[in-house]
Design brief:
By secondary structure, the chain is mainly alpha-helical. It is built from eleven helices and no strands. The protein starts with a helix and ends with a helix. Pfam families: AI-2E_transport. It is found in: Membrane. This is AI-2E family transporter.
Length: 357
């Protein structure tokens, strides 16, 4: 019996190592298949975004339909409210976004000079420390100048890429409408495409994934949107520059557990440092108030159930996601880990049931 257990652990460890080796090779070979992946990504991305939005809106459509509104009218009303709200916000906010982005791009060298002066003050104030400390500070100054230039270049490149995704932006609303309207037909098609012996198991798996993940994703997105809007208003009231840009950063990073509030606060505090220490304390106070509201009001009531994942595993998945794909990887890390967890539990229960039979 002991030998069988050891063999099982050896098999699991070997399988895990093989999986990581395959992932490592895929990362190293990425330059070879990058053109193919770019073409595939351009085709898949609209369907992925449409499927995600459909997944988020479908429970709302069903809720409205159950209240007595015809299904087509419920779909049309939710569809118009969702995309109409996004379109209205884009039309009203995009000009300000462009203006603030241009201002930020112009002021990046000025901000870099301000930080250089701060670092020089630190250097002068630590003259009694060893030479190695001063050398590190000087190296940091040089890196900061290079990073400022990189930020400028990447920002311009990102703005240009928005034009490349214009077709995706146009196609997604049409796909979402068709997905919502034909949701039951798509479910039946998926049911018949699934091999007969896996249908009921697959149905329970998808149901458990939705139970574990659906409320979390919808809640986190809603809370992030509320905090981002509140941050924009608060920063605009106190006179912080670039409130729309900073509010968007806070809304996006708030989706990341634990590290999100810190990542969102860093650019706010860094820009406040170039204004005054009074502005630093004001912005820190705003960030603390927003996080208190999220942690004690919005989080428990909107996000609701947690994912039942130990914090250690959440932190591990965030670090892994950040290492592989930066901030987008950290945003996707916890949902992906939750799906993997549910799949593993189902595989284990299926094996136990098979062995008992």
């Amino acid at each position: 019996m002991t030998k069988d257990i050891r063999m099982k652990w050896v098999y699991r460890l070997s399988l895990s190592l093989l999986l990581f080796l395959c992932l490592f090779l895929l990362m190293k070979l990425y330059p070879l298949y990058e053109p193919l992946w770019s073409a595939i990504k351009g085709i898949i991305l609209p369907f992925f975004l449409a499927a995600l939005i459909t997944y988020l809106l479908h429970p709302v459509v069903e809720f409205v339909h159950e209240k007595g509104l015809p299904r087509f009218v419920a779909i049309l009303s939710i569809y118009i409210l969702f995309f109409g709200g996004i379109g209205f916000a884009a039309v009203k906010g995009f000009p300000y976004f462009i203006v603030q982005m241009k201002q930020l791009l112009v002021n990046v060298p000025v901000l870099a000079e301000d930080y250089k002066e701060l670092l020089y003050q630190v250097d002068r104030g630590t003259s009694a420390l060893p030479y190695s400390v001063h050398s590190k500070i000087e190296n940091y100054i040089v890196k900061m100048e290079n990073n400022a230039q990189d930020v400028l270049t990447n920002a311009i490149f990102s703005l240009r890429k928005i034009v490349d995704y214009f077709f995706v932006i146009i196609v997604v609303p049409f796909l979402v409408f068709y997905f919502l309207n034909d949701f039951e037909k798509l479910k039946k098609a998926l049911w018949y495409l699934t091999p007969r012996k896996y249908r009921y198991e697959g149905k329970h798996l998808i149901k458990d994934i939705d139970t574990s993940l659906g409320g979390y994703i919808r809640g986190q997105l809603f809370v992030g949107a509320i905090l981002g809007a509140a941050a924009m208003i608060a920063l605009w009231i106190v006179g912080m520059p670039y409130p729309i840009l900073l509010g968007l950063v806070i809304a996006i990073t708030d989706i990341i557990p634990y590290f999100g509030p810190i990542l969102g606060a860093i650019p706010v505090v860094l820009i406040a440092l170039t204004i005054s220490w009074k502005m630093v304390w004001i912005t820190v106070g705003i960030m603390l108030v927003l996080q208190f509201i999220e942690g004690n009001i919005l989080g428990p009531f909107i996000v609701g159930k947690n994912l039942h994942i130990h914090p250690v595993f959440i932190i591990f998945s965030l670090l892994l996601g950040g290492e592989l794909a930066g901030v987008p990887g950290m945003i996707l890390a916890v949902p992906i880990f939750s799906v993997i967890k549910v799949i593993i539990i189902h595989i284990r229960e299926h094996r136990l049931q098979s062995s008992s039979d």
